[in-house]
C-alpha cells in the first residue's frame, strides 16, 4: 500500500524545488491528486501474477497461444516518467491454458510498478513459466519512453523493443519464427 502522506509531502517539496508557489490555486490539490494517482499507477506492487494465472483449463495438443497488442502503461524507474506501448505474449501450452484476459492481467500486474522495460518483459515471461508450466514462452514489448521523447536526446516516436524467450522458444528457432509470423498478421 502506498503511503499517501509521504507522497503528498514529497510532491510539495518537488514543487518548491522547481520554484513553484505551492499555495497558488492550481496547485493546492495537486499533492493529494498525485498521491491518489500513484496508488493506481503502482497498484501492481501489492499484486502477484500467480493469482490471475491460477485459473486454468485443460487442453490437448495445444498450439501456440498468442495474445497480441496488449496495451500497457508503465513508469520508468530512472526518470519516473511513463513508458507505454504494446505487449505481445505467447506460450506453447503443455496440458493447460489460462483464460486469455489473464495474459493481459499479468502484463498489468508488472507494468503497474516502477520498471525497466527489459525487466518487465522478463517478469511476464517468468511468471507464465512458473505458474502455467508451458513448454515455452515468448514475450515482445514495444514501447515509447517519455524520458526519450521529452528530454535528453529527444527522439519522439522512437520505440524500444525487448524480447524474452523461455523454454522451447529459446531453443527452437523455427518456433520463434512462427511467433514473428503470427505477429505480422
Ligand atoms: Zn527513463
Automatic annotation (TrEMBL):
What superkingdom does the record give? Bacteria
SUPFAM superfamilies associated with the record = Tetrahydrobiopterin biosynthesis enzymes-like
Query: What EC number(s) would the UniProt record show?
Result: 3.5.4.16
Q: Which reaction does it catalyse?
A: GTP + H2O = 7,8-dihydroneopterin 3'-triphosphate + formate + H(+)
A biological-process GO annotation:
tetrahydrobiopterin biosynthetic process
Q: Please report a single Pfam family linked to this protein.
A: GTP_cyclohydroI
Domain GTP cyclohydrolase I residue range list: 7-183
Q: Which residues bind Zn(2+)?
A: 76, 79, 147
Q: Which GO terms describe its cellular component?
A: cytoplasm
**Where would one find the signal peptide in this protein?**
none
Do you know which InterPro entries this protein is assigned to?
Answer: GTP-CH-I_C/QueF (IPR043133), GTP-CH-I_N (IPR043134), GTP_CycHdrlase_I (IPR001474), GTP_CycHdrlase_I_CS (IPR018234), GTP_CycHdrlase_I_dom (IPR020602)
Keyword Nucleotide-binding on entry? yes
- Pathway recorded for this protein: Cofactor biosynthesis; 7,8-dihydroneopterin triphosphate biosynthesis; 7,8-dihydroneopterin triphosphate from GTP: step 1/1
Q: Which UniProt keywords apply?
A: GTP-binding, Hydrolase, Metal-binding, Nucleotide-binding, One-carbon metabolism, Zinc
Gene Ontology molecular functions: GTP binding; GTP cyclohydrolase I activity; zinc ion binding
Name listed for the protein in its UniProt record: GTP cyclohydrolase 1
